[in-house]
Amino acid sequence: MPIKDLHDEKPFDSATITKLEIFENYLTEWLPTFIYSKNNNELNICDFFAGPGEDIMGMPGSPLRILEVLKKFETDIKQQKIKINLILNEQKKWKHDVLIKNIMDKTTSFNNEFQKRIKIHFFKEDFQNLFPRIKNNIINGPNLLFFDQNGVKHITLNLINELESFHQTDYLFFISSAFFKRFTFENIFPDLKFNKDDVKSKDIHRTIVEQFRTLLPQDSKTRLYHFSIKKNKNIHGLVFGSKHLLAVQKFLTVAWNKNKINGEANFDIDEDLDKQLDLFSRKPKITKLQKFEHNLNLFIKEKKVFTNQDIFHYTLEKGFTPKHATAVLKKLKNSNHIEHFSYAKIGYNQIYKYNEIITFRYIK
């Protein structure tokens, strides 16, 4: 059964727009980090399945959204004299031709100095041929790589392992659970040991990410997260990967801003809003946020003496943001269960940039 091309017939649906918004919002968070870095004067943004740039109604796709974000930071890019390499690949000829036109139309409004800062590289190739050829040009980063393919066939464990050699690189994959339900995927993911018929559609991206984590090299620093997107009865998903804790913090913040109930889906994936009592215990079901608070309390009680760095690492590992951890610490402080000498300061910059390590002590 062929995979439907999302650009051919209809405008972007709400699921596609959600995916694009997450990518755009993350790019908005990612870009200033490297614009102001003293160690970089060149950045790479790669959209390997770019499409024509917009849908049939003119709604911007990822390539035009990239340009819109770059435009927001025009002054900063020029002041810091940053060079941006924008790599846009679209294999289908008609899409490739339309993509070039749409990008050229958009960039004509850029002044000459800004245009010189943005170097656009167009490709019309199969991804499996293109990626090995340009790999050495981008391997040192900084990179933001977007793999927004139809289906799943290019997202392999080999590719994820290959990205282990990349420096300063964050990536977003698109994976469709419908692909897993309709096709045999053992040839693509032979190392994933689960029966697709035993996994609910809503849990496929969780299961894939959990298994990818176990299959990464033992010394890998890559952290993987997912965001599931419901479209009618199907569940699509984005998988985010990065080795850098600041990038993880930014992605999780974007995800939780998209859904403040669970931070991992654009719908109530675990029915956290269901207030019905459990049939057996007759106790209210615990929500994801309540479970995090409970587990963080246990973590703190077991540690007894801990730092904001300990809390920061634990929070990101569990898929939550510094804001969630800070709320838990405030409750403990107000109930006189912890002591410390200043504000909690749970965040990457406070801990790693300004080296503000704070020690806490749990009090029974």
Automatic annotation (TrEMBL):
Domain GMT-like wHTH, chain residue ranges per copy: 269-339
InterPro entries referenced in this protein's UniProt entry, alphabetically: GMT_wHTH, Tcm_partner
Pfam families: GMT-wHTH (PF22560)
Superkingdom of source: Bacteria
The name this protein goes by in its record: Conserved uncharacterized protein
